[in-house]
């Protein structure tokens, strides 16, 4: 089973600041089959990024996914009020298609 | 538009079973896998398994093998998941989600149901 470790657990930032979220895999994720999701309280997760760096439909370009192999990053260039949420990475290269434990982005 | 609409909240006694439904619309049902993901209160997301609506083939996380059964009804474009031998540890919100992968290109889980809360309590 591929274990995904996200860091930090919580990120406290102000509006307009840059957020950098990390997702590290316990083994190489080939073909960059990694996705990022955003989840707000009481809502279902929303797909942001697939294939490590491809935007899902309707996702603002302030969200950028990067990385390969075992190290992946989600960057939010300038935090907007609606970006404060929990973010999860998920690998879908091998079953079970595990999620990271999440990073909470909160208002400082 | 593409939609996944789930059945409502359930309250079950320990040892009971629950069967959840996920009715899809707005796309060709048999072209996209459907996954089930659950989230215990205050916790992260946990992948449970997936079903190929075309042939009904399933792939379950080992943790749930023997206790989870996913099925589909192509006449109503609905996917079902039954979980047996419930314990309090199964109290969670259960989501179905469409796998957006197509033509061999993986796209992640691109459309989600609204979630169904299952509470296991005596």
Describe this structure in words.
The complex is a heterodimer of chains A (108) and B (122). Chain A has 108 residues and is an all-beta fold. Chain A contains no helices and 9 strands. The N and C termini of chain A lie far apart (35 Å). Chain B contains no helices and 11 strands. In chain B, strands 2, 4, 5, 6, 9, 10 and 11 form a 7-stranded mixed β-sheet that branches. In chain B, strands 1-3-8-7 form a 4-stranded antiparallel β-sheet, with no helix packed on it.
Short description:
Chain A is mostly beta strands and 108 residues long. Chain A has strands spanning 4-7, 10-13, 19-29, 34-39, 46-50, 54-55, 63-76, 86-91, 103-107. Chain B has 122 residues and is an all-beta fold.
Distance between the termini of chain A: 35 Å
Q: What percent of the residues of chain B sit in helical stretches (DSSP H or I)?
A: under 10%
Number of helices of chain A: 0
Low-confidence spans of chain B: none
Of all chain pairs, the largest interface belongs to: A-B, 25 and 25 residues
| Helical coverage of chain A, percent range | under 10%
* Oligomer status: heterodimer
Average pLDDT of chain B works out at: 96
Shape type of chain B: globular
The shape of chain A, in one word, is: globular
The number of helical segments of chain B is 0
How far apart, in Å, are the first and last alpha carbons of chain B? 40 Å
Overall SS class of chain A: mainly beta
What would you report as the Rg of chain A, rounded to the nearest angstrom?
13 Å
* Percentage of β-strand residues of chain A: over 45%
Based on DSSP secondary structure assignment, what is the total number of beta strands of chain B?
Answer: 11
SSE order of chain A, one letter for each helix or strand: EEEEEEEEE
Q: What fraction strand of chain B?
A: over 45%
């Amino acid at each position: 089973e591929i274990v995904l470790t996200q860091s930090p657990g919580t990120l406290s930032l102000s509006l307009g600041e840059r957020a950098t979220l990390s997702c590290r895999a316990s083994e190489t994720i080939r073909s960059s089959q990694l996705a990022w999701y955003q989840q707000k309280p009481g809502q279902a997760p929303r797909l942001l990024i697939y294939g490590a760096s491809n935007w899902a439909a309707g996702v603002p370009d302030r969200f950028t996914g990067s990385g390969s192999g075992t190290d992946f990053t989600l960057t939010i260039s300038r935090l907007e009020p609606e970006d404060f949420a929990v973010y999860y990475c998920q690998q879908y290269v091998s079953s079970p298609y595990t999620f990271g434990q999440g990073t909470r982005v909160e208002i400082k | 538009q593409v939609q996944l609409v789930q059945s409502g909240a359930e309250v079950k006694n320990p040892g009971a079973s629950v069967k959840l439904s996920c009715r899809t619309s707005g796309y060709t049902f048999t072209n996209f896998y459907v996954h089930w993901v659950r989230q215990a209160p205050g916790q992260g997301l946990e992948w449970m398994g997936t079903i190929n609506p075309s042939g009904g083939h399933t792939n379950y996380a080992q943790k749930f093998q023997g206790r989870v059964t996913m099925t589909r009804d192509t006449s109503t474009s609905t996917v079902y998941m039954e979980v047996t031998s419930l314990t309090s540890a199964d109290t969670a919100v259960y989501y179905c989600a469409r796998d957006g992968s197509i033509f061999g290109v993986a796209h992640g889980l691109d459309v989600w149901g609204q979630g169904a809360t299952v509470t296991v309590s005596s």
